[in-house]
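Predict the 3D structure for this chain.
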Amino acid sequence: MHHQIFAPGTDLATLVECYWTLESPKEKTPEKNTIVPDGRLKMIFHYGDPYKRYTENGDSFLLPPCFVIGQLTRPLDVEPTGETGTFFVCFHPYGFLPFTTIPIKDMENTAVPLDQLFGEEGTAIGQQILNAPSTAARIASIETFLLNRLTNTQTIDNIVKSTVDTILTAKGQLSVDELSQQSNTHRRQLVRKFSSAIGLSPKQLSKTIRLQATLKMLLNKQPTSLIALAYEGEYYDQAHFIKDFKEFTGLTPKEFYGDDLKMSLIFDRID
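Done. Predicted structure below.
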């Protein structure tokens, strides 16, 4: 697997977290990859061979070549049909709101084709990206497309942005009541704002960010035990940790550790 990460231009940096590419011949790609929720929407372009997506009952279907994947609240299993060549636009948790043409919440766990979101313009930018000769050309094309659609830079609610920043800094370890107090916003109002701008509640985003932080500890620090890992992630107890872990990965920590973990982090988000 070969992956590269690229920073967005200054004009988009408050909305786009990064661009990245993933390339691999079929023989070096695991048969099935589990994508773990990370609280970010992504615009995805498969300029290599198509990918299959598996449903919860084990059926599969081909993903479109160009789409936006909505907020994930459960693990997503995908499988390459051949050579992998993928270009990702990874948005900040609130970053896709100024560009969407449908409610963010309606995109949950769904791959929405670009032509459904943007009509002929979506079809056109998809073809530009798929046919581009290089990553630099892909980045230039998508930045032009996004900047042309960015008519209102004040779309992002300051309370949402500051609360998301707080969640990220705290690695998801603050309660919704604590977040509400820090933002001086009523709990119900904060939940409504998050649902509209992000597609997740503050609690869902916090759980997602906490697990992502724990996964990175599992990958990088290799703690001595699951109890130690649960303690470092400030979970109430090991049972709470295992429950959240299985909710987002579909597996227990013991089952998940290994190549599956590394692939999931590569496919979802890389720091």
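The beta strands are 2-6, 16-24, 33-35, 42-46, 51-54, 60-62, 66-69, 76-80, 84-91, 111-113.
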